[in-house]
Amino acid sequence: MRTPRTLLCCSVLWLLSSGCAGSSAAMREDAPGAEAGEPSTQAAVQAPAAPVETPAHEPPGYGYTKEDPIKVGGGPDGEHEYLHHLRGPEGQRLRYNRRGSCCGFKDPSLPFGGGMLDMYEVTYEGLEKPVILFLDMYRREEPRAPSGFRLD
Predict the structure, then answer these.
(1) Do residues 138 and 110 lie in contact, with contact meaning Cβ atoms separated by under 8 Å?
(2) Ramachandran region, residue 19 (left: φ > 0; alpha: ψ -120 to 50; beta: rest)
């Protein structure tokens, strides 16, 4: 019989290992035939160890603010799958880099009563400057594309 303490310890270990799996940040150039999880031939860029400040220069709206993140669920794999299907407005493949975690939130429905959002710097060919998108790997709602993007 599993005790609540055993379940809590297992949950903590799972959460810690999931966070570590999603913390490697590599700027990826998606080439035709490249999969979302494949490493780039470019040098890896390490994510900052400490949470990153929320940038104030992004346009307001779905995915661009901590108040209205893209709720992909599924942990780090859910974030990568979403970003793999996200495209520029003309179908351009994305390059993205996980910038770190920010913006702790409370949610009593989650195992630890809350979580943090992940910030991804995203760009594609023709985009003047990269944008920051906020993703929630804990909660899921049917994802949609932020303004200036589309889902394929």
Answers:
(1) yes
(2) alpha
pLDDT in tens, 106-125: 999 999 999 999 999 999 99
Helix orientation angle between 75-85 and 4-21, rounded to the nearest 10 degrees: 30
What tokens does 63 get?
Answer: 């995915």
Per DSSP, what are the bridge partners of residue 86? 151
C-alpha separations of 29 from 33, 58, 109, 125, 146 in Å: 11, 23, 37, 10, 21
Question: What six digits make up the tokens of 87?
Answer: 């495209």
From the list 79, 95, 76, the residue with the least C-alpha distance to 87 is 95
Report the C-alpha gap between 95 and 120 in whole angstroms.
10
**Segment holding 104, helix H or strand E:** strand 94-106
